[in-house]
């Protein structure tokens, strides 16, 4: 029953049209949305990586807050995690409270005074105040030191304080403190440069200081001291740094270095972890020295940092939780240095000498007590350890003698230094891909040439899907075979495996020669068009022969053990899971990709090309080599590029078939660690938003951009090729 | 030789050899996987080995290796063969394997009386059966004859198996729901309800305890071939067989049984033994979910690109970009999934909907949904490209014909274009499924679990648990082979898993190919 009345048709037409418009709208919205979602990958990665590039900054809040009481004679300032401040004046007066924006002070009546007996009538002349140290050491101008245990929160426990004599008669001018699980050390120098050390057993948690400490004097003079938590004391005097080990029964001199030629050492401090020493000099230079392992010179100097001015360094203040230090100079400049990345920020300090300064325990804020009052600085240096140099050039890391490119991202705590060098990972990725191509390109192109020009069409219709089905083989299966089956096998039969690379081509040529001399009947039975199949048993025989005969060969040529021979003659270490295995396995995985694209490029050529060449008297091979291959070369090039793109991004095979050691070597017998495998291993454990996490994302972005560019290039080449084919066909 | 040179030279032979080498490698890989994967379930003979010093042990011969390097110096050449035996009895020997010099073996026999027990703890036992005990009292010894004892053991094993099934049933269908209701109810339930539930739970637990006691009734006295005895509770014995006494048919039957157990059971012994059912289920479920997501969106995007959008340089640029995304490494998609889906969307979902469960994440951690979405994203370019190719292949006059007859653009699309493009779409989905099923790297970031014996579908609302972790065959393979302890012990299992994974992918592929063929045939009629 169709209603032909005009109103009904009009209604229906309008309905159809609105439905049409709605569908168009929905499809457009959905299509754009989907494409946007897919393309969002690049955007997301970029956004996540951008914070790595954000410059570090130390920003002052303005204006300065009026100084709290006692500021004029402050000896020690401490900021706690909740914004509270503690000020200790040199005469023992104590103030605790908050300082608001406008200078109003909370708990102002907390003005206190240490018991007079504690200081013994002396005033405070030096302080060793490492925020994480279990003791607060106050040097007194009457040659004694006052040791105050600190609670876990950092709060000094004044009632447990003890006084000990450090020098005879001269005021203490500088103090430095260090402690490990069992001992603590306190080193001080007086105005004349004499150095004395106190060594004590670590207090129990109840705040008891235990036995009186032992006192030693060192036969050196010092203007600067630095002590780490392993009892390593660095004494700076003039141009020299002398290193002492305090962790034995008596202090032991480890040696010294002349750190500077003409300038004098003016500031000295260990960064967190106690392995990196920063040395500031009178010419404004700052240089990093690392504790050496073993019996070498006790300190290894890194390249001096680039510094902004010639003014003498007056103070190096290490941050409590990271390898960062704030460095002040005599010209009123202030700069932030990161151990491996160098200077990250420079700016102006508030006017005048600081009376005291203190970092909050999380290292995110700095309180600066100066002439103008109290200033709070925000230290914004989240990813300060990463710069272009640290990622791609050799860096002197803690625990090494010379600059190296290392990746060691998954470190926890502040004790060990993370090593963020992407170069070994990039190297591993390219090395694995290169070996894969070395293996895959000849095989895939050979197969493509054979199946495009020689193979019988009937066979080709079957072989092509078979080889393409190889592509569906999951990487995890190939990786398993490579890592658990092939790697141990080749380790035992290295000579045989290497012999195959020679035996197979020679055997094929031999096979060809035999075939051409064989009787005509046999040749008709085994035509070249089917050689891809009937050569398989012949090759299997060759493989078997090579593997059985190789032990004899090995005994004859390589003294019975090729691996030992490689090690002795060429210095090549053999790791069971190495680049060669990855090349084999990943080559196997990319053969189908390269094969099918190259085959398409070759068989897509107009038939007239090859036929013309052959009509002019060329053999099939000559026609192929001189005419067809050059014509199809862009397609073959793009096939290889796409294969390379796949090899670069392949994860599971590399993960399973290499030892995942981030080494940079040319040897095919050593392991490697690729970017993709590294992401798979480390990303699940990386803290969200941290430097490690962002660097892993950066490496993912590199993979993305690299493969995207390779594929685009290949795609453009292929498009041009298609156009060329069309022209060729039109011309013919 | 001259003729050969005047012909085409050696190059064609090298080219032909490349095909042959590729085929040889594929054949070797498939043969290796097939042989080793299936041999894992074959009840191999147990050898009773006598060594030159008179000591004896029993075990299954696994493989032999020729070692040369060390012996060269000592013995002056000549390969030395070492044989690896699976000897089991880890509770007696402290180890599971034994390497023996082939020269030291003086005699190898296969006596019919040797049995192999598969146990819940300590792995296999290989030795002899001495006696059967019930409640500590000896019921039957081998004086009654090996066969009688064996028959009795079989009967009792059947009983134990039934009891174990009963226990599992009680756990899953009685105790677990009650415990969940108790945990979920909280204060909402009245006191009396709560008390009643507690009582029911207690009763159910008591029934399990009864079953447990019944399970503990029987025990075996076993003896290793060197005469050490061992009491083995029968409740912990999973299976027993006498490989040496079995006929080939019996062996085949046992092979089938063990194969079935591998496919249908969950993993045991920290993934070191048992089956892979949760991993199969997880893989297939994830791939299904993925194709449900990827098909409509991929087709939508392709239709937009090809039918709706105005063709111009921008669209061709987008087209190239989409095409290239198919070549972007899968791990990059995994990173995207982790960063955006898990941490970004999942984290926000947790804060809005599941804030009471924080800080333990619900959707803010890897799971089935995120894994499916990530893989959908990964395979989207594949579907788009394939569908687009199909759409582009449809002759313009088809569309023009429909439009000329008065159809709107939507109607043309719906009734003419899309049906014709159906085979191409299916091709895309097939390729997507084939790629997704074998993809492991992104799953390591977004949700595959080492061990999740519960499958993500159950009888409890909402039936399909999108937030749960799941097992995946490929990731399971990686875990068992590379993160487990005893590689030697894991190897047969890994082979079996690898074979299974390849088979699953092949089956998925073949099904899809069949489907495509079928549909192509159906749609050929009216339009040609």
UniProtKB/TrEMBL annotation, chain A:
Q: Which GO terms describe its cellular component?
A: plasma membrane
**One example of a Gene Ontology biological process annotation:** transmembrane transport
**Which residue ranges does UniProt annotate as crossing the membrane?**
21-47, 432-452, 472-490, 496-516, 528-547, 579-598, 627-648, 695-717
- Asked whether the UniProt record includes Protease among its keywords, one would answer no
Q: Where in the cell is it found?
A: Cell membrane
Q: Which residues form the ABC transmembrane type-1 domain?
A: 426-714
Q: What is this entry's stated membrane topology?
A: Multi-pass membrane protein
Indicate the principal place this protein occupies in or around the cell.
Answer: membrane
Keywords from the UniProt entry: Membrane, Transmembrane, Transmembrane helix, Transport
Q: Does the keyword Transmembrane helix apply?
A: yes
Q: Which family does it belong to?
A: Belongs to the binding-protein-dependent transport system permease family.
What's the name of the protein? Answer: Phosphate transport system permease protein
- Organism of this sequence: Modicisalibacter muralis
Automatic annotation (TrEMBL), chain B:
Which PROSITE patterns does the protein's record reference? ABC_TM1
Bilayer-crossing regions: 276-305, 325-346, 366-386, 416-437, 493-515
Q: How does it sit in the membrane?
A: Multi-pass membrane protein
> Which residues are the signal sequence here?
none
Q: Is Acyltransferase set as a keyword in this record?
A: no
Domain of life of the source: Bacteria
Boundaries of every ABC transmembrane type-1 domain copy: 280-512
Q: Pfam families from the entry? A: BPD_transp_1
Keywords, sorted A to Z: Cell membrane, Membrane, Transmembrane, Transmembrane helix, Transport
Q: Where in the cell is it found?
A: Cell inner membrane; Cell membrane
Q: Name a biological process GO annotation.
A: phosphate ion transmembrane transport
Q: Which GO terms describe its cellular component?
A: plasma membrane
- Recorded GO MF terms: phosphate transmembrane transporter activity
Q: Which family does it belong to?
A: Belongs to the binding-protein-dependent transport system permease family. CysTW subfamily.
Q: What is the name listed in the Swiss-Prot or TrEMBL entry for this protein?
A: Phosphate transport system permease protein PstA
Biological source species: Modicisalibacter muralis
